[in-house]
Amino acid sequence: KAGVTQTPRYLIKTRGQQVTLSCSPISGHRSVSWYQQTPGQGLQFLFEYFSETQRNKGNFPGRFSGRQFSNSRSEMNVSTLELGDSALYLCASSRGVRSYEQYFGPGTRLTVT
Amino acid sequence: AQSVTQLGSHVSVSEGALVLLRCNYSSSVPPYLFWYVQYPNQGLQLLLKYTSAATLVKGINGFEAEFKKSETSFHLTKPSAHMSDAAEYFCAVSFYGGSQGNLIFGKGTKLSVKP
After folding, report:
1. Do A105 and B43 touch (CB under 8 A)?
2. CB A104 within 8 A of CB A53
């Protein structure tokens, strides 16, 4: 069974631009969560989607948004990029909205200059 | 509120030596606990999980962890370290929703293995 895939793997953007990251969950998994990982803050939860609905949201500004499609694929968008948004963005999928066993993708490394 | 503390941000062992990575948690309800491993430039891989069945949990790559309720601990061990074990390890506790998400992660412990 194919794992969680994330595209692109690497991105370099300029401050003020916006970016969209994509995540395809494991087949049959309906829940997708997004995390931001930085050396200083560690792993921080962004949001969770299940059945195209945001079920849970972390403490991030409104510049961070996401959505989920009917095939469970998810995208996250960051508008008006700031230098502090440079991070590894990880997507994780699980079977249901309260399935704690999450499977992670390889991540998208975003660098904001 | 649930939280996770990993003692030691860096641990160094010699190849063949015992690996012990410490994790303590706090939870107001019986927790589910997890250990994940992250290799450089990769995502997190699930090593093992505790979901209230056996207190000694065996995972992949020879790792195991023991749930000790009285000590609120879930330490990760491996009898003999291998060079390929060098990575960062994260302990996580389950949490029902809220702004922290379904999983709350510790800060991570970077394991180095010396030849």
Report:
1. yes
2. no
Asked if A57 and B99 come within 8 Å (Cβ–Cβ), the reply is yes
Which residues of chain A have a CB within 8 Å of the CB of B29?
Answer: none
For every residue of B22-75, which 3-state class applies, written as one string?
EEEEECCCCCCEEEEEECCCCCEEEEEEECCCCCEEECHHHCEEEEECCCCEEE
Q: Which residue of B has its CA nearest to A10?
A: B41
Structure tokens, A83: 């230098």
Q: Which residues of B touch A94 (CB under 8 A)?
A: 102
Using only the alpha carbons of chain B, give its radius of gyration: 14
A24: exposed, middle or buried (Cβ count in 10 Å: 0-12, 13-18, 19+)? buried
Q: How many residues does chain B have?
A: 115
pLDDT tens per residue, range B16-36: 999 999 999 987 777 889 999
Most confident of A74-78, B24-28, B66-70: A74-78
- Lowest mean per-residue pLDDT among A49-53, A57-61, B26-30, B89-93: B26-30
